[in-house]
């Protein structure tokens, strides 16, 4: 009889339990049983309540701040390694701390590099993630990294809108590559916002490179945190004559007064994924699930089939 590959086991960190359930359902499996014991001082301990010896396991967890989310992932990986799992894949829809991907001034850490090493030391034999803040973070790992693009979710959505005079925009110079990739797929024009920051999350000045008059603009970015950049860019574009401004951002951090800014801004719509648990406090926010994308890739990884189509913008 031909050898049949045993099915993998799927587990989720507490911060990604809801997404984990969706991914497991799309995969056609049940979410594995893991419990967290907590001490009164806040220390916690994960425990796999079923055998994972010799199995391929997927541990689902986004590592957005606070630091407990990252710690959960690390402890889960270490527990799986010590329980003799054969393959341990960290499925990280959002790879946190990625904005610290280089030294932009003296005496600062490169947090993304540190976390890559921590994940490998903890036991990860593969990483699956989506829309890294900087592509070069893949090079921080010695293990395989599957870097997926949320464009496979966003492009069909945008095409279904059938917007006339469509224009793709990047809210900063760093996102120009992403904007050009979207514009190529949608055969549209591109504009770029040039911004200068006074400090982190504070914009001092913003200028627009390109014409938006009479156009339906779609801003594209990898994440939205305080929403200061997106809302300022949207207001500027409406002032310059744009018909409408939407934004698509993969990871909805939405910290501080982000929801209030979005509600008061000229943005018509903000489309995000559920890579991070988000409270939908604004009627302008639409959430597209990435569960099907991750379930598909996990299935392909397990059965050793190509996933190159998920890398394409």
Automatic annotation (TrEMBL):
Keyword match Kinase: yes
Pfam families: Pribosyl_synth (PF14572), Pribosyltran_N (PF13793)
One of the protein's GO biological processes: ribonucleoside monophosphate biosynthetic process
GO molecular-function terms, A-Z: ATP binding; kinase activity; magnesium ion binding; ribose phosphate diphosphokinase activity
Entry-linked InterPro entries: PRib_PP_synth_CS, Pribosyltran_N, PRTase-like, PRTase_dom, Rib-P_diPkinase
UniProt keyword Nucleus, yes or no: no
Residue stretches making up the Ribose-phosphate pyrophosphokinase N-terminal domain: 9-123
Keyword terms: ATP-binding, Cytoplasm, Kinase, Magnesium, Metal-binding, Nucleotide biosynthesis, Nucleotide-binding, Transferase
Enzyme Commission numbers on file: 2.7.6.1
Catalytic activity, reaction form: D-ribose 5-phosphate + ATP = 5-phospho-alpha-D-ribose 1-diphosphate + AMP + H(+)
Gene3D superfamilies, sorted: 3.40.50.2020
Entry GO terms, CC: cytoplasm; ribose phosphate diphosphokinase complex
PANTHER family, per the entry: RIBOSE-PHOSPHATE DIPHOSPHOKINASE FAMILY MEMBER (PTHR10210), RIBOSE-PHOSPHATE PYROPHOSPHOKINASE 1, CHLOROPLASTIC (PTHR10210:SF41)
Protein name as it appears in the record: ribose-phosphate diphosphokinase
Organism: Flagellimonas lutaonensis
Record lineage: Bacteria, Pseudomonadati, Bacteroidota, Flavobacteriia, Flavobacteriales
